[in-house]
Amino acid sequence: SIPESLRETWRKHSAQGFVDKDGFEREFVQHIETTLARSLYNCDELAAYSGTALAFRDKLIIEWNKTQQRQTFVDQKRVYYLSLEFLMGRALDNAMLNIDKKEAARDGLGELGFRIEDIINQEHDAALGNGGLGRLAACLLDSMATLNYPAWGYGLRYRYGIFKQEIIDGYQVEVPDYWLDFNPWEFPRHDVTVDIQFYGQSIRHQDENGKVKYDWVGGEIVQAVAYDVPIPGYGTKTTNNLRLWSSKASSGEFDFQKFNAGEYESAVSDQQRAEAISAVLYPNDNLDRGKELRLKQQYFWCAASLWDIVRRFKKTKRAWSEFPEQVAIQLNDTHPTLAIVELQRILVDQEGLEWDEAWRIVVGTFGYTNHTVLPEALEKWSVPLMQNLLPRHIQIIYDINLFFLQYVEKKFPRDRDLLSQVSVIEESQPKMVRMAYLAIIGSHKVNGVAELHSDLIQTTIFKNFVKIYGPDKFTNVTNGITPRRWLHQANPRLSDLIASKLGGYDFLKDLTLLSGIERYVDDADFCKEWSEIKTANKVRLARHIKETTGYTVPPTALFDIQVKRIHEYKRQQLNIFGVIHRYLKIKSMTPEERKKLVPRVLIFGGKAAPGYWMAKTIIHLINSVGKVVNNDSDIGDLLKVIFIEDYNVSKAEIIIPASDISEHISTAGTEASGTSNMKFVLNGGLIIGTLDGANIEITREITESNVFLFGNLAEDVEELRQSHRYAGFTLDDNLAKVFDAIQSNTFGDAGSFEHLIASIADHGDYYLVSDDFDSYIKTQEIVDRDFKKRDEWIAKSITSVARMGFFSTDRVIDEYAESIWNVEPLVVE
Ligand code: GPU
């Protein structure tokens, strides 16, 4: 660093960033003219976005620097959140809010010839995630910064995020999402690089003192390069860091020797092989596919992150025993479980610690969050695959397992069944490493993400581990959402109305303050404004639907929305069968009967994993039904069915505030938590749902009279499945009629939907669509009835919002900090 005597010059010129409208304009024009080499003659909206983003980026990075210096100086315990997915969405509006300079930018852009909303809309989403798990990681980062926790995220810098979805002739088509053309929010750190090893062999030898050591030799080297993304907190100077790793050929690998020897092509192909590691996000949600490249991604990212974390710790010259007092690492599902093995390897093989001491440090450091009980999503890696790719790690995994099984044997002598049930190694053909078991053994706390889910993991998939370790190792932290993005940014008018009654925006930092609006449920003016805001949000969505699908939908109709990944367990098929039932019913009605109906617009959105045929069939059915219903002049505006393509974070910000009702209708016991349920209620939409995930806790908070619940309970699901198998299976009458309509080609060629119907009618109806159908359509009738009582509906909406305080990720982060991480906030002056 620079000697003290010269620092005055530095301080005199230290960057400040703009402070007001004039300053913003100056920075904007400067960036347009120099950084972007443009001028007032060729500054289109995209360039204006770039100029605006660069001006805000300067502000962010100044605060980022201060935060990092402060955190290094104080050196208290830090949190590291390891996630393969960060579904960040757009950053500019959030930066404007958190820097508290949106008005300066609005006025400045106005004077320069632009509308701020148009500029914000130019930004490409950062879509490095699939769905709820990745978006949760983004909300948690927002809250960690807002609450001033010294916390870093670690992830992968995919060149291609989740694919862009197009709907062509009713089918999903995937288009690559190359999003890095212009990304002002990342800072490449070409000085922060580390070589990561793959393949090769583990060689056993003895050192000069006769101690057995292992050397990992040979194989390939790939270089990890850090890219940093600043994460600003709201109403604080704290700006944390998200570090994303990018892969490239290590300088040794893209070899000038090869190059000079004329092997240009093979030199280039090495380069491409290395770059493939961080090239693309795997597009599966709640599914494990066991591909080698995915395992490479996982190790590459864990090893780079651990190197970085350990390096930072070693600079402080503390004793290794202090590591867990300085470092908390949270594993977002099992994807980063190799970090446990890697830390043990670093401590034992590289730092020379004894196994037991190293293992105490490892377990004290890690916490593991489970996000699913679905068997197809529980990660397993084949032993031969790991043996080949990570020869030393597989040895360490076997040793971890050996010591664990010895511990179990001591506690439960001669219980062979128990040993084989809890072994990290599944004795299958080939043998498999059970990653969740490894994550549990290597962590001091394991949590689920909603009460029902945390109970379920303790009584089903992990029950043996509760028996072995006792219940204290397991806990619940119910998910939440950030109110900054999901209330204030997505629904500014609602946020402003609430602020006008609560005397300011403190509720964005303490969401429980929302309870203060409940006393306005009888205030006619307030209710009227509330209702007008909902209508305005519906008009905005109707405009988007018109622009993107060509369909006109009436904003006075009931907007009924289901947006989330397409999955059989989430049961979009139940919804669309319900829509068909409604369509058939309307068709059979007299004009008099039709007059009493509440017009409905069904809005669907969500991506199917490219290899998930049943999910793709569901998308096709929704679009086929839409085509028939929307063009049926006999139906008119009574029913519309819309599929919004390419559902993502920025679309969610338009869609969610426009709902009258939204659907959270998973088979009970399958949706770990769900988080869009929280977003919809916070925006004044009511929900129809099963007693699953966080629906249960939302109901407890806002009370049962404000939720439309239906369907079988989680505790009865297994028995129902059994009864399908052995007692025979009769289809619900109304569902049978829906199937008849499909099978008589009402919605195009019935052959397309044959397997979807067969999975229910002939193959056991695993997701209980038929069992829940009657309860579902009856509850939808209650929704129709209640929607007509406009005043009561608005009162329900207001009351629900007022009671949503619990579901902020601020509360979630405080719970993790207190019960898992043991970290304190650190305020940056
Ligand atoms: N979740 Br596992 C995903 O979005 N993707 C996954 O691969 C796995 C879980 C979701 C859960 O399905 C959802 O219920 C939960 O709210 C979310 O994680 C965050 O915990």
Automatic annotation (TrEMBL):
Keyword annotations of the record: Allosteric enzyme, Carbohydrate metabolism, Glycosyltransferase, Pyridoxal phosphate, Transferase
Annotated GO CC locations: cytoplasm
Catalytic activity: [(1->4)-alpha-D-glucosyl](n) + phosphate = [(1->4)-alpha-D-glucosyl](n-1) + alpha-D-glucose 1-phosphate
Entry EC no(s): 2.4.1.1
Domain of life where this protein originates: Eukaryota
Cofactor: pyridoxal 5'-phosphate
GO molecular function, one term: glycogen phosphorylase activity
GO terms for biological process, alphabetical: glycogen catabolic process
N6-(pyridoxal phosphate)lysine PTM positions: 679
Pfam families listed in its UniProt record: Phosphorylase
Record function comment: Allosteric enzyme that catalyzes the rate-limiting step in glycogen catabolism, the phosphorolytic cleavage of glycogen to produce glucose-1-phosphate, and plays a central role in maintaining cellular and organismal glucose homeostasis.
Family as reported in the entry's similarity comment: Belongs to the glycogen phosphorylase family.
Stated name of the protein: Alpha-1,4 glucan phosphorylase
Taxonomic path: Eukaryota, Fungi, Dikarya, Ascomycota, Pezizomycotina
